[in-house]
Structures are given as C-alpha cells and as structure tokens.
Amino acid sequence: MRATHSPGLSYAVVGRDGPLHQRTWGTDGRGERVTPRTPFLWGSIAKPVTATAVMTLVQAGRLRLDDPVTDRLPGFRFGGPAHAAKVTIRHLLEQTAGIPASATSRVTDCHGSGCPGAAGRLGALDGVEPLGPPGTKYAYTSANYLVLTAVVESVTGRPFDRAH
Hints:
The chain has 7 helices and 2 strands, in the order ββααααααα. It has helices spanning about 45-60, 70, 80-85, 90-95, 105-110, 120, 140-155, and strands at about 10-15, 20-25. A hairpin with a 2-residue loop joins strand 1 (about 10-15) and strand 2.
C-alpha cells in the first residue's frame, strides 16, 4: 500500500465453491473501511479474463478470431463505417484495432449503477480518429477490451458476469 499510495486493498483466494481465504486493509476512496464487500475497479486484470472468455467462445466455434466486430456489434462505428468494418476480434485482442490510448477514458472510466453496459458505451468511439488501418499500429488501451466485452455479451446473449 505504501509503494503504490493505495489507501486500501483487498484480496481473495477463490475456489470452485467461492472464497477460500480473504483479507482486507485500509480505507476506500471515501475513507470507509475496506471490507470483503467493498467494490474495486478491476483495472487491467479484466483483460486476461475477457481474453479467456473470447477464446472460450472461439474454441466452442461460436466466434472466430477473424470475424469483423461489426458482425456481432452492428452499432460499432469506430473510425467510421469503412474502418469499423475491417476491425476483427483478433485486432482487438492484439491491441491493433487503431484505437488510441487517449480514447480509453471515454469508454472505460465509468462505474456505479448509472453506468451503461459495454455496448452502451461504444458510441463514445464513433468520433475517435484511428491511429491507422486495423492491424498496423499497436496501442495498449482498455477500450479494445471493452469492445470485446460487448462482443462476448452479444454472442452469449448474457451480461458479461454470467456469460459462458
């Protein structure tokens, strides 16, 4: 906590039937004591979870890496219709869809009960200028994985936390 200047933290070791061990320390952003029920933003931990969900759908034959995102999300218009139609699932996973890192906060920094789901935030990418054609420029941004979250929800017909 000292090294990262975090006011509080929590961890849990989770087994098949739920938490096996958990600990908490410090306070949350409002100064309240951290408990096992204190919500935290996932940050980049969400990326491997999302990638695993995508690859599980790929293994099951419900999705292909080279499928255009617009096949699953017709409302995806990042970079305009011509650019969006060329962005594939693989581009999002590899962080080469052309989404600049500066677009991250437009679509990802939202929490609380009034925050729209993943698909409801995609419109924030509509006016963003791509870094280049899909597959040509690498840019690490959580926005790629928010789009993948919306893809998983579209393919499964379920909210991400219940998608399988």
